[in-house]
Structures are given as C-alpha cells and as structure tokens.
Structure prediction request, 376 residues.
Amino acid sequence: MQFALPDAHPLTDRYDVVSCEGCGFVYADTPSTQADYDAYYADLSKYSDTVTATGAGAQGFDRARLVETAKTLAAHVGDPNALIVDVGCANGGLLSALGELGYQRLFGVDPSPACVEATAAQPGVKAAAGTLFSLPDGARRADCIVLSHVLEHVRDVRRALQSTRDALAPNGLAYVEVPDATRYVDCLVAPFQDFNVEHINHFSATSLANALATNGFVVESTMRKTIEAAAGVPYPAIAAIARKSETAPQAIVPDDTLRPSMAAYIERSRDQVAELDRNLCDALAGAPEIIIWGTGQTTLTLLSHTHLGGSKALALTDSNPRYHGRRLAGIPVVPPNDLYFMDAPILIGTLIHHVAIEERIRAMGLPNRVVGLSVH
Prediction:
C-alpha cells in the first residue's frame, strides 16, 4: 500500500500487507514504530472531530452503537461499582452510556488531549491522557477494560494485551472489539478503506481469540456484529469477552479463512479504484482545478492511485482543525470557510461520509458545483 500523507506526518507513506504462514493473521508490515503511532494519535487524532468521527455519540447511529455496547458490558460486568476503563475512549460516548446505566466508576484514557478534555466533561467520568503502553494510575486495578476498535490500530499487539492484563484486577474482564476482516469484502463501500495508515491489524474471530489466549486471557465468548461506519453504512465487527487468567497461555489455532477473504477484498478494491478513475475522468472533464473535501482514506487512495480526472487539486478541506495549515501531497489543507473565496468544483473525497459533507456544503450556501464519487 502507498499513501499520500500530510507534510511532517509521523507515519510511513507505504507498507506491505502480509499474512503469517504459521497462524494466518494478516497485518501491515510497517517500518513505523509504536512511538510513531502514539505521536500520531496524540497530535492528529480524527476522533476529536465530532462532525464525521465516531466515538462521541453525537450522531444517532453512533449513539445507538454505543448504547448497545454499554448494555453488553453491563450484562457481563454486573456490579455498578465496578471500575470500568475505556482505553482509546475518543470523546467518551461509551462511558456516558454506561453512566446512564448506573455505573459510577468510569475512567477514560486517550492519547489526544482534546479527547481527554471532552471525556472528562461527561458527568461522573474521569479521564487522563495515556496509551496502552503508558496507562495512568486511575486506569489500574480495573474490573473491566474496554478496547473498542483499538487493537487494529496498535503496532505492538502482544505488549498491548499484556499491558491490559497487568492493569486488570484479579479475575478482571477485557472487552475487545475489532473490525471483522473476513467480512470486509461483504461490506465494501470504499476501495482499500481498511488498508490505511491507522488500521494495521486485520482480525478474524480466530486470530482475535489467538491474540487473547496467548497473552494471559481466557476467552469466554465472541460475537459477530454489524455496526454503522456512518448512517446507513454497514461495517463488520467482532467482539470478545475475555477474563484475566493465571494459567499457562493456550495454543494457537491456525486460521485458514482470513487470507482468502482478504484476497477477495483486495481484488474488489482494485476494481473499484479503476472504476473511480474512469468516473472522475467523466465527471471532471473540463475542470482544470478542483477542491477536494476530506482528507481520509478515500482521498489518500484517490491521490495515490487515480488521475483525479486530469484536474489539478487546488486545495483540500476538512472539518478537523488539526489538519488546517498543513499540506497533503503538496496540496494545502484549508478550513471549510476558506471555500467562500474559491469557485472551483468541490469533489467529495469520501464514499462513507458523503451525505454529511454534502449537507454541510449546502448549509454553508456554497455555490460551487459538487461532484460525488460513485462506484457500483
């Protein structure tokens, strides 16, 4: 994989996706270190943006997901006085939902200062900056630690799970939810949407159980879920409930299903990129310059793998202020309000959040022609 990244980005702009011949796990063989990833999530976290990012419960579909997860946790944790720690808590939406269920000892951990501030503002919730590799004191001896859509982002999975285990009280629970890579191809919306700078581990139910069982946990149950990445956009996930164990690590169970599923996903993604390239040539014919709204994975793919219809990208825009003033592939990233002074067509550079972005453009009253992406 190859990416167009902002200047001074802490992560690499390319990596190989590989499959372990022994256990079948699929992951990015990236030269970036765990410290590089920690710096990225501290400084460039997209989750501090509640307009399109999930985790805060600001949108109805995201709120419904968090409420459902809170109910699942309550069914397994029980005691309302249990200390529940959400690592990678974003803006604290899950902890807020747990508070509404009567849980009183809630603690959020996130590398982003903006996310920590938003989480600490939730009634009855405490929060502190940190990572799985530098947990604050308030997160230790927890009765339950939540890693919801965290492990796919972690460079050192083994050390992450061992740190989680060490922070749990005796007999404590871990709730781990990750994307289900065996179903990427079934829920494909945008090409290579899960081969990005953030998602570097690709789990099946078997490989998730292997990771937990070889790092001091006994898996009590797993469940397949379909959540929403955006309103009406299905996304596959797996969740596991695992208990801290004092017994010897369990043996690895080889997974022979993940690699073929990923191969199908890659083939379909390549077909989509080719289709996007053709569509952009038609939609942007005669437009010498364009503006691209969105700096997410689809935009990175467009800049790296298409000709953008032969048009020059005049500027990129994004609602996340952390990107403003930077350059991506040499293109300046500007605040949305700067578009009032530009009359080029706006290409919506996402297939997942295009509805919300188009609504934002119309609410701003921008007269620019809007071009959406389209794949079948």
Notes: The radius of gyration is 21 Å. The mean pLDDT is 91. The chain has two domains: 16-263, 285-371. The longest helix spans residues 258-283.
